[in-house]
Amino acid sequence: MADSARVLTQLDLAREADVPPPYVDELVAARILRPDGSGFGAADISRVRLARALLDDGITTDDLRWAIETMGLPIDQVADTFTLPSRSDHTFGELMAALGPRGEQLPAVYAAFGLAVPPLDAAVPADEEALVTRFLDVWSMVDDSPDVAVRAAHIIGDGMRRITAATLDLFDERGGSPPDRLRRGMNREESMRPSFVLPPVQKDVLAWLDTRHTEHEVFERIVNHMEGMVTSGGRAAPRSVDPPAIAFVDLAGYTELTATRGDERAAEFATTLSALASRVVAAHGGRVVKELGDGVLVRFGSAREAVAGVLELVGAIPDAGLPGAHAGIAAGRFVVRDGDVYGHTVNLASRIAARAVEGEVLLPLSDAVALLPSDAWTDAGEATLKGLADPVAVARLRTGVEIDASRR
User: Fold this and answer.
1) Domain check: are 48 and 64 in the same one?
2) Which of 210, 235, 270 is the last residue in one of the domains?
3) Pairing between strand 325-331 and 335-337?
């Protein structure tokens, strides 16, 4: 835990904020920092870091003093919204050396997290040092190959960057920033309140969702593993074939839409599609793997569930005020890696989706014959698909046909 009551000297503050000591004196002279008789407080670290970030963007110390005194810039309140760093005991170079051979991974891990790689003489807060060390420890237990920890850091860093940027974009778009609220006539306390409340709420929601999603993923893997064990051990009859499936669902005419109605309107459609797809797909036991701007890539544990879910989604898209959609489904095994999916099944579904027209859902004819009743589809002939040597016979799903996804 950070000690908010600890006292820092000028050299302590400069070291932990990673600035030259004379810069601290400059901020004191401008009355941006106001040390008491004993020295500086831990909260001054965030104030110095914020002031330095502004300086790096061309906002001088004199500009900052003017904004605080004349325009009421609430630098103290802004800085106080961030968690105070703990005391720094080591530099980045010392941490690398203490980690031994694994220390060589540290710059790549920081970069993968989406953070600037600190200089070797930069101070590393104790809580950050402990957390990074634990991160490297656990991934070295899994696989001590140098790239594994970097890949894990990239997954977390990329996800957090997207969450943070999109959240703050929405916050600013809807007028949550202090300047916007001040312009609407609110006092300083009212204008700052969302900025104070959002960070701890965001932190708690992310921790809650991490627990829920981790539990779901772990339980699902245990169940699947146990099913395989008891089946191969002759303790349970294997299920009839209903393989997993991949589907691509794309909005029709999205490129033209962007050109005629603008990027902002197209982005609104993409957001609506994402929310709709997540709800409909989850109701059929599937999940959205990724958003593609003009569509979504989804996966299902069952091909019949994929057919039922994709038909419902394609039918619901126009009702949500979106352009019509088309889709392609392919059943079969695929590789799941770092949350993404790879393999022939994925490529086949993508190529088939590209051949579908608005309102149409296509899948290989062999999948339709093996998995669905004859009244659920029609033969759509052979299609020459990009990247595949031989033509593929495809089937067109009929709308309004009930698919018994429970039949395996």
Assistant:
1) yes
2) 210
3) unpaired
